[in-house]
Structures are given as C-alpha cells and as structure tokens.
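[agent] plan:
  1. take the single chain provided in the ticket
  2. run structure prediction with default settings
  3. attach structure tokens to the ticket
  4. add a short note for the reviewer (M.T.)
[agent] executing step 1
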Amino acid sequence: MTKIPDIYFLPEWGKSYESKDGGELKIFELENEVGHVFYQFVLRQVPVENGNAIYFDTITPYGFNGPLILRCEPDKKEELVASFNAEFQKYCEKNNIVAEYIRFNPWLKNKSDFEKIYDIEDNGSTVFIDLTVNDFFSEEFSSNSRKQVRRAWKNNVEIEYDFTGASIQEFHRLYNIMAKRNNINNYYLFTEEFLADSFKRLEGKQFIISAKHEGNYVSAALFIHHGDYLHYHLSANDPEYFHLAGNSLIVYEACRWGTENGKKELHLGGANNSLYRFKSGFTKRETLEFEVGTKVRIEEAYNLLVDYKKSKSEISDTNYFPLYRG
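[agent] step 2 finished; step 3 output follows
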C-alpha cells in the first residue's frame, strides 16, 4: 500500500482510539487505474430503537483524518473523487449507514479534494511550527517564548524523555490536575490504563517529554509522530509550577527532537484563547483551518430517525449532526 503520510491515518491509530467514539474501526479503500483513496472511520450503531431496522453512522477517529488520496493519475482527481463517492454510497446503502461526520486534516488539506461531496463547516484553527527553518528558536519563537525557555533553564528545570510509558502515572496525575482545573469535556479524558496501552499499540510512534524540578514532575506532554509530522498530542501541567516555565521548555525540546529526527512540522493543535496565545508564541506561521464535513447518505432513513427523536422530544441541540444524536 502507498505510504500513509501522517499518524492520524494509520489503522493502528484508528484502532487505538475507536473506543472514544463508541464504535468499531472500518476501512474503505477505492483503488483502480485512476488512483487510490484510503478512508478509515468508526462505525457506530445509531442509538434509536424504531422497529426492527438497525442503522449506523460514521465518524472519523479521534484527531484529524478523513478520506485521503494516496495516488492519482495527472488531471484525474475529479474522476477519482466521483468514483469514491459513488462506491462509498453503495457501501453505505448496503450496510445501513445513514450519515457521515468527518474531521479533516488541516495540514494535508484533504478537505479540498472532497469538498464537492460534503457539506463543509469551519471548526476553528490549529497552530504549527515550521521545523525546516535554519534555527527554530530565533526564527519561529517570539521574544516572550524565548524568554520563557531561558527562564526554565535559569530555574534549573530538567527534561526527561520517556519512549516506553514508564512515567505514565505521573503524566496522568498532571493531566487530571489540568483537566479538573479547566473543566474539560469527558471526551478528552483518558484513563491511565488507556494511555499505558497506547504505548503498546503505537510502539515507536509516541513519547513523553516531562519537565522536572527538584525531583518533581511539574509539566509533561505526550507527543505522537509519523512521517514528516510531529504532534503535541496531550499536555499536562501543575499550575503551582507555572512560574518555572516548564511547558515552554518542553515545546523547545520537542522542536529540537523533531529537527534532529527529520520532522518538518510540529503541530500544537487548537485551543481556547489563553492556550492559543501560549501556542501561537512559538511560531510565525499562519494558522491552519480545521474543517469538518458532513453528509447524509440515506436520506429517507435519516429523516425517519430524526422524526422519531423529535416525537420523543429527545433532541436538545438542533445544530448537532447527525441531528438524531443532538
């Protein structure tokens, strides 16, 4: 199979995170003389009891992925995408799949290849650091971010790399502190067991960088990587130690590791206002747009499910997709 360019498209990634969306990972591929489209998604049973029929919908695995063109003959992209749409429509009808929800990849920009198929909606932006510059510290970091890194050095903050998950207990402790402080959604909570298992499922594709001070873990981040891309996947901090600037030093260390290991970009993700300000201080690049795609595949069944939920007065969010899950 043609090389997968980013970790979010790997089957082992999808399999690792399928439980986050309460379904089973499936892979649909179209490969012919024109090209090759790879699409992994989580198949979920629709939680609506209405007669004997069982319906399903799909959502892309946790992160940024969606259908991806791995190969295409010159000037044949429109033909390839149309073939993909037609074949996947047949697949959906055969398997009672009524709707799709796709979280597209902002840096591979696969949305642009499939925007004629799906309804597209902006869902914020994401930040990345260009690691191909001569000196990321001077060329990408803002003066304030450089100041924070130097503060960490001055405070004798030490860095620890963990490629096996040995420090997962400390990481999880810090992550829970951060999660409670920011009141984050349950979807973004992970058990210690889940994180420990991820080091087995994604062996060689993730590691933790921790900041320590006087023997104490004060900040940590879980990084994932594949191909040209390194990702700041999960961060964990104890606010009592913010003054040590350990998190800034972690970002610096990740950039250093990335450049030494041939990565071209470090993606920091999106965030709320305060975290966005923190992340944007490490780059001079324009933000990337995070977009989602939706599509009703079996309209009659979709409307039936929506009407049934409405009849039970069980739809609380009329902007949600699919609406019967609102």
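[agent] step 4 note for reviewer: Residues 141-282 form a domain with the Aminopeptidase fold (CATH 3.40.630.30).
[agent] ticket updated
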